[in-house]
Amino acid sequence: MRVGLVTKWFNRGQPVVARQLRSALDELGHETYVLARPKKERGPMKGRLQRDDVWDQPRVDEAKAYDITGEEYSSWVERRGIEAIFCDQDYQFAELATLRRRGVLVIGRFVWEHFTADHVPEAREAFDVVYSFTRCEQERYRSFGLETPYVPWGIHPELLAVEPLPRDDDFVQVIFPGGFVGHRKPIEPVVEAFKRTRDARLRLLVKAQVERKGSADAVRAAAASDERIAFMLEDQPTEDHLRVVAAADVCLVPSRWEGLGLPLFEAMAFGQPVITNDIPPLNEVIEHERNGLLVRSYANGTAKSGIPAYDPDLDEMSAAIERLAEDGERGRLAAGAREVRTERSWDHTVAGIGALIERAASRRAQVTVP
Fold first, then answer.
1. Quick count: other Cβ atoms within 10 Å of Cβ 80?
2. Whether 93 and 204 share a structural domain
3. Order of strands, edge to edge, in the sheet holding 31-37?
4. Pick from 273, 252, 262, 276: which is nearest to 340 by CA?
5. Given 83, 193, 267, 272, which is the most exposed site by the fewest CB atoms within 10 A?
6. CB 30 within 8 A of CB 13
7. How many Å apart are CA 134 and CA 141, to the nearest integer?
8. Quick one: which of 168, 172, 153, 154 has its CA closest to 269?
9. 295 pLDDT exceeds 70?
10. How far is 29 from 62, CA to CA, in rounded Å?
11. pLDDT for 153
């Protein structure tokens, strides 16, 4: 089958999921195409759309803008002979419904921090199947009356092939993957919790893709007062980025809310214990005292869709960092990370994606699209 993916196409979470999803579809024997939408013209990296590094792939067509016109969708589908499309966070319901009426299978997902009950009627018209990568997301959508099959997200083979950047020190390297260091990433609490630790072997690397003035200033001030803290504010090529992350000993990745949490899967691939919040979906991936430590959090506001946002407890986070400075504790939980890595095999994801296409085709055969 000729399968298209509609997605942003640069070094961010959603496009990484799409790129890895594409490899699953290729593995299933489908011929894949990408309609790459540039980043919205606001915030960091306005209009970003990459064609170098791992994004240099065949059969990638660049959309003219983030909001794709119905004419552009239709032209792409016709020109490429697309029979099914996978979408991620695509709220252009009217345009997708038109494609569906033309016979294209439309399959997609939405992150629970944006998707609300108000979106359900239009989503039903536009999609043959909406699916979920997390149980909490699936449960929330079920409360809206929308059944979304669960596909387990696994550890992509490219992560298992990463060679860590060589190190020649006796430090315990803790890494905080900050991404765009937006409101979802509690960078200042992380820095404050780390500063409360006393183990001289501990080191914190704050690794982000962009420099946001307030956050960067906070890290610089912390680094000036604690020589154990360093930061890297640059968008590295994928291989370089992953080698830096893989060289760490501990992944510190609390979040105020989360859609999927790719750093959790990177940490498992690299055999790193994780410190994060005891909230879903983070606690679906990290099991307390098995492959990481979960810290208590306090509700503080909401995300866009109304799901609670949480602040991590600073004392508990600091204590968890101190615990993982101990070689025995860190080694025990690192072994747990490697154990869970096997359970999160990429084969399960490939099988789940294949089942989605079968489900969409079966439903289409039974239901007349309005």
1. 18
2. no
3. 60-62, 31-37, 2-8, 84-88, 105-109, 129-130
4. 273
5. 83
6. no
7. 11
8. 154
9. yes
10. 24
11. 97
The verdict on 41 and 163 lying in the same domain is no
Buried b (16+ CB within 10 A) or exposed e, 230-242: ebebebbebeebb
Mean pLDDT of all residues belonging to the chain: 93
Same domain, 71 and 93: yes
Whether 178 has a pLDDT exceeding 70, the answer reads yes
Distance CA 140, CA 241 (A): 34
Residue 143 sits in the same domain as residue 237:
no
Whether 97 and 237 share a structural domain: no
Burial call 288-307: b when 16+ CB within 10 Å, e when fewer? eeebbbbbebeeeeebebeb
Whether the full predicted model's pTM is greater than 0.90, yes or no, is yes
275 and 293 in contact (C-beta within 8 Å)?
A: yes
Tens digit of pLDDT for each residue in 41-81?
777 778 889 999 999 999 999 999 999 999 999 999 999 99
For tokens 């979920």, name the residue: 132
The answer to whether residues 106 and 183 belong to one domain is no
Q: Which of 62, 46, 83 is nearest to 7 (CA)?
A: 62
Domain check: are 33 and 133 in the same one? yes
Q: Indicate the residue type of 224.
A: A
> Whole domain around residue 220: which residue ranges?
159-343
Q: How far apart are CA 211 and CA 181, in angstroms?
A: 8
The count of domains in the chain is: 2
Phi, psi (rounded to 5 degrees) for 36: -90, 120
- Residues 188 and 222 sit within 8 Å (Cβ to Cβ): no
User: pLDDT at residue 214 above 70?
Assistant: no
Q: How far apart are CA 62 and CA 84, in angstroms?
A: 18
196 and 116 within one domain? no
- At residue 212 the predicted structure's pLDDT band, cuts being 50, 70 and 90, is low
Which residue has tokens 């999927």? 260
**What is the CATH number for 264?**
3.40.50.2000
Q: Are 290 and 311 in contact (CB under 8 A)?
A: no
* Count of other CB atoms within 10 angstroms of residue 118: 10
Alpha-carbon span 297 to 295, nearest angstrom: 6
